[in-house]
Amino acid sequence: TRKPRVLSGIQPTAESFHLGNYLGALRQWVTLQDTHDAFYMVVDLHAITAGHDPQALRRRTRASAAQLLAIGLDPARCTLFVQSQVPEHTQLAWVMSAITGFGEASRMTQFKDKSAKQERASVGLFTYPILQAADILLYDTDQVPVGEDQRQHLELTRDLAGRFNKTFGKTFRLPEPYIPKETAKIGDLQEPGAKMSKSNSVPAGIIELRDTPKSAAKKIRGAVTDTGREIVFDEENKPGVSNLLSIYSVLADTPIPELEARYEGKGYGDFKGDLAEVVVEFITPIAARTEEYLADTAELDKILTEGAHRARAVATATLADVYDKVGF
Ligand code: ADP
Ligand code: NA
Question: Within 6 Å (CB) of ligand 1, which residues are found?
């Protein structure tokens, strides 16, 4: 039987992913390689919708792919590619835009949030969810991992797929949200109530997968904790300690109650020192493997070209069907 197909993407908008990206999303990508027919892409087309520097984009696209390989995505077990190398994404997006209502597109709350922060929002940022619909529908995707912020976009995708099917004949599979069992929401180390985020956190608030050991350890030791001295999980009253416990628990594969027991009667200093070691042990090999991939860009580009080739085998078939149905 066919394994369910899953598709997910991440923007190449930073030199490094952070621990929040990893624990909240990318870790799941690695797991899903075995249970699913997984398609993963670095979404560079999406990354140009809010202003960008071409050299930085090229560098970050490679850096993103290198990190995805470094955390354990295996091109033999998943299809890993760069979105702009599969032109069918933009071709299908145009067709989908023709059946999207202006009013329905205008209801996307993420655009409202993002455009409010910009002086001059682009049309590309506005139609971003339509490109996202095309990303998903091109591959007969069964499941899409989505956080709360992406739910509305997946609903739009389903609406557009259903509308196309009804108008032109059954073509698209309607994708379902995939709700991972365990995803950690990781807080900012300096402001634990807020999420760790490349756009909003100060450097000391985020652990990057490409941080040096020294820098990562310093950030953990300097993390904001709370008054009192007990190391217990209590998100409301001890958000800082709780966030560190969550990170510790996942990276050391140790249940939180076990950690609470281990640190009973000990101070924040011991706890943070140990966690710093755990974090450094985790990121050091990932950072090293990332540099290895980036040291041989010819080989890296070859892996990505091969991934795009496999993605296109599916995408061209879907687009041919769509073009035929709409009368091209
Ligand atoms: P950022 O907030 O740093 O800009 P993105 O919005 O690009 O990150 O998110 C990329 C992926 O990482 C998404 O799947 C998102 O849900 C996840 N993610 C980002 N930050 C966190 C976090 N602090 N905790 C858990 N997951 C996160
Ligand atoms: Na995602």
Answer: 10-11, 20-21, 23-25, 147, 185-186, 195-199
Which of 291, 322, 325 has its CA nearest to residue 91? 322
Burial of 202 (0-12, 13-18, 19+ CB in 10 A): exposed
Separation of alpha carbons 124 and 48, rounded Å:
8
- Which protein residues have a CB closer than 5 Å to ligand 2 (ion)? 8
Q: What is the pTM of this model?
A: 0.95
Measured distance CA(176)–CA(305) in Å, rounded: 29
ipTM exceeding 0.90, yes/no: yes
Per the structure block, which two tokens stand in for 75? 């091109």
Annotated binding residues, written as ranges, equal 11-13, 20-21, 135, 147-149, 186, 195-199
Helix (H, G, I), strand (E, B) or coil at 37: strand
Ranges 127-131, 141-145, 149-153, 240-244: which has the least confidence: 149-153
Ligand 1 atom closest to Cα of 25?
A: 14
Residue where the block lists tokens 């599969």: 86
Helix (H, G, I), strand (E, B) or coil at 238: strand
Q: What is the CA radius of gyration of the chain?
A: 21
